[in-house]
Amino acid sequence: MRQYELTVIFPLEEDQYQAGREQLLAELSANQVEIVKTDELGDRDLAYEIKKRQRGRYVLYTIKADPVKIAVLDRIFKLNNGLLKYLFVRLDEPPQT
C-alpha cells in the first residue's frame, strides 16, 4: 500500500458538505482505503469558478491505498456531484535503510 494525499473541495452549504463528505468516506471504506490523517483547511476563494461557485471548503486527507484502488476511486469521484474538485498526490516513500 502506498501513501497519498487527497485534497477535496466541497460546496460551502452545510447540508451539501455533509452529504458529500459522507459519500466520500463511504467510498473510501468500501475500497479498503485507510485514512491516516484529516485536516480541515477551511473555506477559501477558488482561483476560478467551479460549477458556478466562487468559494469552497477544503479538506486534506492523508490515506494509504493500493494504486489500483486509486484508479477506481478516480472514476467514482468524477461522477460524485457532492465534490467540486479532488486531487490525488502520491507521497514519496522514505528511503529504506
Quick description:
The protein has 97 residues and is α+β, with helices and mostly antiparallel strands. Helix content is 30%, strand content 46%.
List keywords for this structure.
97 residues, alpha+beta, 30% helix
* Biggest sheet layout: 4 strands, antiparallel
Helix content: 25-40%
Residue fraction in strands: over 45%
Q: Kindly state the mean pLDDT as a whole number?
A: 92
Give the C-alpha Rg. 14 Å
Order of helices and strands: EHEEHE
Q: If strands are numbered along the chain, what order do they take across the biggest sheet?
A: 2-3-1-4
What would your notes on this structure say?
The chain has helices at 14-30, 67-78; strands spanning 2-10, 34-50, 53-65, 85-90. By secondary structure, the protein is of the alpha+beta class. It has a domain at 1-35 and 57-63. The longest helix is centred in the first third of the chain and has 17 residues, at 14-30.
Please give the structural blueprint:
Layout: E1 2-10, H1 14-30, E2 34-50, E3 53-65, H2 67-78, E4 85-90
Antiparallel strand pairs: 1-3, 1-4, 2-3
